[in-house]
Amino acid sequence: MREKAVFSVGALVLREGKSEGYSEVYWILHGLSPIRVRYQKYRGNTVLHVFLGEKILSSDVRYGFYNDILTLRLFLPTKTYRGKSIVEKLALKATRKLVLKAISDLILEFGEVSYNIVFNYESIIKYILSRKLKPYGVLDFLVAEHINNLDKTVNLLSNRVRGVLESLCNEGILTCEGEGYYRVCDNFISYTLKSPHYTISKVSVALTDILANIMPKLNLDTLLKTIIQYTPYTTHIYVNPYTKIYITLPNGSTKPLEWRLREVKLHPIGRLGSSILNDIVIAKMAERKVIVKKYREVKGIKWIPVTLWLGFKENFTPDPLERMARELYAIYTLKSYGINTPTVHSVDWHSRVIVRDFIEGSPLSTLIGKTKLPELNKIYYLVGEITAKIHSFGLSIGDHKPSNIVVSSDYKVFIIDLEQASTKRNPSWDIVEFLSFTAVNAKYKWSIIRELYHSLVKGYLSCGGDISVIEGAFKPKYIRVFTPLVPLNILVRLKGELKR
Predict the structure, then answer these.
(1) For 29-39, how does the pLDDT look when each residue is reduced to its tens digit (9 = 90+)?
(2) Which element (helix H / strand E) includes 416?
(3) Which of 125, 244, 295, 304 is the most interior residue, by most CB within 10 Å?
């Protein structure tokens, strides 16, 4: 049966003298059932162009049967041999599918911070290319061509992607923020975050397995191996999709999601620490001392606090990109309200690295037991005030403990670890966690714990903190979490102090 539309899905590169490649190409063509094949010379190589009909293309757009490789071909500027209007409709469907997938991936990547991001059409195009350019860890020949001419490709695709973004605004998925920028609507974000990514992936795999028995087959592994073997490109090209994405703050201002240090070299001084979550290095940047923090991928979690947090659904995340986004958003927000946090100098989203100021001072955890109690009481009163202010901004700190508070020589208090900050968590968590780690740092000496507890609570209430937040800190669900860390009798006695 004659296909109404025939379209080029791109090319395979056959180098001269590599005759073994032709047998693989035969099997690829057998699997694709091409409508037309054409050869041409390119950079000293023989390029084999493969043309397909609309049936096999539409099946990939609709079901993703070929891992969206053909869908991506429709997204990129195309060559049509027959049936231009049909291919244009398929290209629009492919664009809508990939744009929606990119928006969903952004939401899953940023987590709750996605409520506060805005982006433009260029970032979406680059995001799609950055996710698709390495299907098996290598560059696809045709995609590499478009990435090598990225500005031209973005320009060619801009009208089509803008049209899709505008249609999503009409459907209530996006809102236009003006000047070509968009925000995802809260309902769509909430819906997406309720669907675990791994579940979506499992469903997708199961659907593909079912379709494999009823749809035309493509030897995908063979196709990619041939592309890998005969591509003229030997280096990976990196597309940065984050340059046109911004974070909006509660005061209405916006800050860039990513910026890089230019012509500034970092000279490592030493490692400050390494954990299952992060690598932290002290470095010199010109004459300034800085912290270089890399957010690690968490695999095989065996860290008890993380397991407990996740188990009790207190909105903690092990995901490195969301932790990085939360920290950046929290630093921006607290600085806008005058809270002391380290100044950020560089954000590299691709490498998951933040460069920030090193704060000269002592962690509060080391001052307990070494500093006179009257001085410690003043610091704890101040921490209580700061905690109440942060809660009034709609944030909870998440990992709120004395070791994450740095006290400078002139008694300024800095919050230095905000990667678990959240707008969706009960602020009572911050109180019970801070008091529990205070007990650990005080070596469970009740006389010290009691004094510091009262100073923290007085500071919290004096700055408008809600007494119900303090009361909520001693609910049974939180006491159960921290009992392995702190003897139960101490937590019960602290609850009793509140009643008095």
Answers:
(1) 556 666 666 66
(2) none
(3) 125
- Spatial distance between the Cα atoms of 136 and 132, rounded to a whole number of angstroms: 10
Q: Tell which residue, 328, 346, 183, has the closest CA to residue 262.
A: 346
The answer to whether residues 381 and 458 touch, using CB atoms and an 8 Å cutoff, is: yes
Distance CA 55, CA 70 (A): 11
The residue ranges of every structural domain in the chain are: 6-248, 256-357, 362-499
CB 473 within 8 A of CB 435: yes
**9 residue type, one letter:** V
**Cβ(106)–Cβ(182) below 8 Å:** no
Query: What is the predicted pLDDT for the residue at 297?
Result: 76
What single-letter amino acid sits at 442?
A: A
Is domain 362-499 classified as CATH 1.10.510.10? yes
User: What proportions of the chain, in percent to the nearest 5, are helix, strand and coil?
Assistant: 50, 20, 30
CATH topology of domain 256-357: Phosphorylase Kinase; domain 1 (3.30.200)
Cβ atoms of residues 435 and 448 within 8 Å:
no
Kindly give the residue spans of alpha helices, DSSP state H, lying in 368-466.
373-392, 428-441, 446-462
What phi, psi does 293 have (nearest 5°)?
Answer: -115, 120
Q: Over the stretch 53-89, which tens digit does the pLDDT of each residue have?
A: 788 888 888 887 777 777 888 888 877 777 888 888 9
Q: What is the per-residue pLDDT for 356?
A: 93
Reported as half-sphere exposure (CB side, CA atoms, 13 A), residue 154 has a value of: 20
- For the segment 332-386, what is each residue's pLDDT rounded down to a tens digit? 999 999 999 999 999 988 888 999 999 999 999 999 988 899 999 999 999 999 9
